[in-house]
Amino acid sequence: MGEEQERAHEAKGVAVELLATIDLGREIDGLDGYQLRMRKVTIEPGGVFGPVHDHRGRPGTVFVLEGTITDHRDGTATEYGPGPGWPEDRATTHWLENRGRVAAVEVSVDIVRKE
């Protein structure tokens, strides 16, 4: 695991706000126990959304509202924002950071097991 992967284990400068959920079991047969979730994530300058995590069983997609977010996966760092972000599917293992000078804000929509 490289230096960037090691740094990713320490989450800092991140605020997560739950915006909405929908019980998918009531909407689609076979999805009992799952919900569609929408969150607003703010990553302050120098902030890290870690640790390294995967999205097996938790697919989603991201839209960056403000700033720039760097997505680290498969040894590659890709910058997004503002605008369409990245997919989060079963093959996704990543971590995020804000290398910029202003807060980065994203909206994340995913399917998760109900809490």
From TrEMBL:
Gene3D superfamilies linked to this entry: Jelly Rolls (2.60.120.10)
Signal peptide span per the entry? Answer: none
Please give the InterPro entries that the UniProt record associates with this protein: Cupin_2, RmlC-like_jellyroll, RmlC_Cupin_sf
Domain named Cupin type-2: residues? 41-105
Query: Which SUPFAM superfamilies does the UniProt entry name for this protein?
Result: RmlC-like cupins (SSF51182)
Task: Supply the name of the protein.
Answer: Cupin type-2 domain-containing protein
Which organism is this entry from? Pedococcus ginsenosidimutans
